[in-house]
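re: that chain from earlier
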Amino acid sequence: MTDLDLNPRPKLAPEEYARLYFEYKTDPILFLCDAIKIPTPGGAKHFEPYREQIKLIDLLLSEHYVISLKSRQIGISTIVQAFIVWLITFYKDITVGVISKDGDEAVDFVKKILSIYDDLPFWLKKDFAKKREKSFILNNRSAVYAATVNPHKPSNIFRGKTLTFLAIDEAAFVEYIDEAFTAISPAMSTAHIVCEQRKIPYGCVIMSTPNGTTGIGQWFFNQWTDALAHTSRFKPIAIHWKQIPVFRNSPTWYKTQCEILKHKWRIDQELELKFTSPQNAVFTGEDVEYLQSLIREPVFKQELFDNTETLVDGCRYEVNENPIGSLWGWYDLETIAKLGKDESKRLAVTVDSATMFGSDKSVIEVFDIGNLDQIMEFVGKCRVDKLIDVIENIIMPLVPNALLVIELNNPGNQLIEYFTRKSKWGGNLYHHIVYDKKLNIKEKRPGLATTAKTRPLIIDSLFTCISEKIAHIKSERLVNELISLRYGRNNRIEGSPHDDIAMAFSFAAYIRQYCYDTAYDYAVLPSEQTDTLIDIVEENRNQTPIRSRNMFTQEDDTLLLEINEKTPKHIQVLNIAIPNSNKNNLLSDDDIDLIMDI
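^ sequence. v structure.
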């Protein structure tokens, strides 16, 4: 016998049920707090989502594609299961797919969804059209399916099913998930276009603790690093156990988890969100631990867009706001501008450029060469002309005295040609020295040449600054690439899968170790535009607002506190009329008929 049987809610008038139904459908957080019960030892209890769980749901509703790096056993799977219950309860013809590391895990995930659904208030539940261990279908034709990836035919997963929502649990431990996800994506994208048109919630959530940077865990690591670099459609959210008061304030929880996990590398991986290095990794476990300890949250994260006007139908222009990358900074803009005008500082802007096509990214790093203090970082996918805009109109006006170091590669040559001929920052360009056969200086040429002679020195400087712990790296994106570096064929160091950010940093390390006294032999340009840069960035922010990690206002925090204090929850029926119109298609005629029949 359930709590509902023992303490049944007084039956409400049909219009009151309609109001509640409408409120729950339009506000999933209210639904989770009021109507959801979570299976626990001793019986189900009312769900009280914590802040990070609510942030995850907000991201799913607004961005649709979310990847979560999480500590183990902190309730992230539970909030996704509850969200799926909301989805299939209030929307028809929803198809949910669940993938986990093995069959038992996937089935268990679906069983928990089913258990939560069974504990809903009677007037919200629908009859089952089918009910099996691995799947169930409601009579509103919404369905949930569990699946595992067949190692022999990974592309056959969910064959014939068009998924509205996909949940991949413990993604870093699912074999052949890369091939399976590639096979699922086209049909899922088609369904999502229809959902977008009909204002139906849709999406995909990828959840996992880390599992290294290569092997089975490589796909999840790649997805996470691409999300951090804003080069994929997924929005990242990291949830550490210390962010959750019930675990942070417990005197025994962390100790118990450590006793269960035993080994330090497992504790780092399962609890501390650390990607452990592969067997053929360049850096040792001690180096990896040092690098991960350096990570700091940026003071600002600025998404940059290509606001290009395009002629439409031959008669009007539309502005395309295509994202080209993201700029992170570890000081506020005023402080960066002061550092940029300080002629006693030796700052460097290092650039590793890539074409618009392919998997490589364009990277700009800003470091104080004296102590290798990281100031700013841009990572993106964009055309060469847009990368020029970022350097010329945003980066260099902030740090007008900085050395501009551009690698000599195909797109880099285009950058160097532009800054040599057309840009006022041409005088800031780093020049490499060309020697004759007698090792006399023949000439200086703009750009950093990565040749058979200089590449070993670049790698050596990278080793030195990390092994001697003199680098003040702060970027999680950079650290993740550094710890993924490994020895490939012929003992050549390569990224897994990318090394663009690591290379841009290594240029700064190289300048510091081998060219510190000679690299800055250029005319220091006037910095009259530095004072106006803050206005430029503020104007850009109005067009492309910073996405803050903290999505809650003080009023939101008060409201959430009040929600969490309500135990058990009580529904207060507001004295309002049933909506006569359904402007957002949130309450269908079938919904109204269902409630009126209760």
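Residues 1-8, 522-585 have pLDDT under 50 and may be disordered.
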